[in-house]
Amino acid sequence: MTTLSYEVIFGALAAGLLVSLVSFSGLFVIWLPQQRLHAVVPNLVALAVGVLLGDAFIHLIPDAVARQGSVSDVCLTVLVGIFVFFILEKLVRWRHDHNVDTQPSSSEILPLAKMNLIGDAIHNFVDGILIAGSFLVDPALGFTTTIAIVAHEIPQELGDVGALLRGGFRPRQAILFNFYCSLTVILGVVFTLLLSQIAQASLILLLPIAAGGFIYIAASDLIPVLHERSSLAHLGSQSLAFALGVGFMQFIVIFEQALLAI
Amino acid sequence: MGNLDSWLHIIGLELLLILGCVWRLSQKASIKRRTGQAFVLVLGFMLAHAVTHWLPDAMAHFIYSSSHHLAPINVWRDRS
Fold first, then answer.
1. DSSP H helix total and E strand total for chain B
2. pLDDT for residue A48 is more than 80
3. Which residues on chain B are in Cβ contact (under 8 Å) with A30?
4. What is the pLDDT of residue A104?
5. Separation between Cα atoms, residue A73 and residue A228, nearest integer Å
6. Nearest to B7 among A14, A24, A27 (CB)
7. Does the beta-carbon distance from B1 to A7 stay under 8 Å?
8. ipTM for this model
9. CA distance readout (Å), A67 to A21, A61, A203, A238
10. How far is CA A100 from the centre of its chain?
11. Lowest mean pLDDT among A11-20, A30-39, B21-30
């Protein structure tokens, strides 16, 4: 670990702000006409499913295993994450509307959007810890970690915006709420800079819990939405978007390894 | 990597971009007002920094670049 120099502090904060800035990558939906938006949203939701599952199974779980060392402990914590998100969704539905429909009515926000925001906030907090943690080890490693995180955030934010739109948010609201959730990156950075030992240790729990949350959101909230339309055209476009999300996450792993090899 | 000024410039630019986006997207008058004020504040800091640090340095280097014998020693030392 290096000492807490201004380069580490400001570098980590600048990297955190950059990741927050990436949450605006779904901004284009504001300028899409309503009809076009309706056609695009299911594909963005399918992209979100691929990215969330890819992130969980390709990034978060292997990273947690590498830190924890025990596959069975990590799997158990992933299950705890799924269970925690199940309870959270129950509470969200019970508190707000007692509604189990997947169709948004008027201005109502569906639980899938709220769950997506909670999952995204936890994931961004973890990203903040990873960024600041790598800057503490070496600023050069901090840059490569930031580039890798930004690269996987772009498709993820696109998918998140799609899920929020499907959950009843208006385009402007979806972008803004997605951005507010992304600010947890800064919290993660500050938390790690202040309490680096605790923050690094907390990753053993936070990584698999975030993975469990992603698996839960993708499987229970988003995939049922994809089954609402079952034509051959939807099968083709949604499968492509799903595969694209997973493929992109796999590409990021190769990209990360290439960056670390430099 | 860069010095403290470079980091502050990067953070300032990122803040300006974020505040600009939030200001543009927000439809609530109170949020618009607050983000607008924050935008002006950050921009003010950056301009004040430019006026008090960057501009005098740039002018000194421009003036002394043609008359090396007049330049204070620290101008060239700082530059290198």
1. 4, 0
2. yes
3. 25
4. 54
5. 36
6. A14
7. yes
8. 0.74
9. 29, 10, 8, 34
10. 24
11. A30-39
Comparing A66-70, A73-77, A92-96, B20-24, the range with the smallest average pLDDT is: A92-96
**Cβ neighbours, 10 Å, residue B65:** 12
The encoded tokens of residue B64 equal 């002394």
> What is the pTM (predicted TM-score) of this model?
0.77
Euclidean distance between CA atoms B66 and A6, whole angstroms: 35
3-state secondary structure of A3: coil
Whether the CB-CB separation of A214 and A53 falls below 8 Å is answered with: yes
* Two structure tokens written together for B1: 């990597």
Tokens standing for residue B2? 């860069």
Among A5, A17, A173, the strongest candidate for a mutation testing the B interface, having the largest count of B CBs within 10 A, is A17
The type of residue at A77 is T
Test B27 with A7 for CB contact under 8 angstroms: no
pLDDT at residue B69 in the model: 64
| Residues with pLDDT less than 70, chain B | 1-2, 67-80
Q: Is A237 helix (H, G, I), strand (E, B) or coil?
A: helix
Q: What percent of chain A has pLDDT over 90?
A: 23
Helix axes A111-137, A71-96, angle to 10 degrees: 140
